[in-house]
Amino acid sequence: QISLELDTDDLPIDLLERRTDIAIRIGPLRDSTLHARPLGTHRLRVLASPAYLEVHGKPRKVADLGDHALLGFTQPDSLNRWPLRSVHGDEWTIRPTLAASSGETLRQLALAGTGIVCLSDFMTGADRASGPLVQVLAKETVDVRQPVNAVYYRNTQLSARITSFLDFLSQRMG
Questions:
Q1: CB 24 within 8 A of CB 148
Q2: How far is Cα 79 from Cα 150, in angstroms, rounded to an integer?
Q3: Residues 37-96: tens digit of each pLDDT
Q4: Helix, strand, coil distribution of the chain in percent, nearest 5
Q5: Which pTM was predicted?
Q6: Using CA atoms, how far apart are residues 150 and 35, in angstroms rounded to an integer?
Q7: How many CB atoms lie within 10 A of CB 47?
Q8: Cβ contacts of residue 140 below 8 Å, gap of 6+?
Q9: What is the pLDDT of residue 40?
Q10: Residue closest to 10 by CA, chosen among 98, 72, 85, 92
């Protein structure tokens, strides 16, 4: 008995302005005026399609990424810091060859063989399991997990429908 309206913009929205009950936020939370319900964490991985790797070769070390097409985010800049161990530490800041505001757009570009991308497991688990995307630089990848939270305003008395939906999400994503 819940009807959903999905707004798939990757940028944070103002819940009151958009008349939105719940937003799903991935990564560290910034707004302390919101209640948050943790839904889980998802690992970041550097991925490419086998077709891309066949044409351009597989990077053997992090520095090799400079010779590849890198798919990154237009914002925030933190999403262009990949969890890769190198002489500079446990983070490798990329300069995207092609940038998009949507993780799903970047996923589709990677699937099409356009370049190498860093995305969360929740977006790419099925792709990795069936083969359209493969992990690259696995030994150099630092185990970084992004928190996933459902957020809503503190002043909101949670109705049964919102509580039920949050329980459903927690079970599916946990």
A1: yes
A2: 19
A3: 898 889 999 999 999 999 999 999 999 999 999 999 998 888 999 999 988 899 999 999
A4: 30, 30, 40
A5: 0.82
A6: 8
A7: 25
A8: 61, 62, 84, 85, 86
A9: 87
A10: 72
Query: Angle, to 10 degrees, between the axis of helix 121-130 and the axis of helix 103-111?
Result: 20
Tokens linked to 103 = 């993780």
Give the C-alpha separation, 94 to 77, whole Å: 10
The total of other beta-carbon atoms located within 10 Å of residue 132's CB is: 18
Cα–Cα distance for residue pair 107/119, rounded to 1 Å: 8
- In a 10 Å sphere around its CB, with 0-12 CB exposed, 13-18 middle and 19+ buried, how is residue 2 labelled? exposed
Q: Other CB atoms closer than 10 Å to residue 43's CB: what's the count?
A: 16
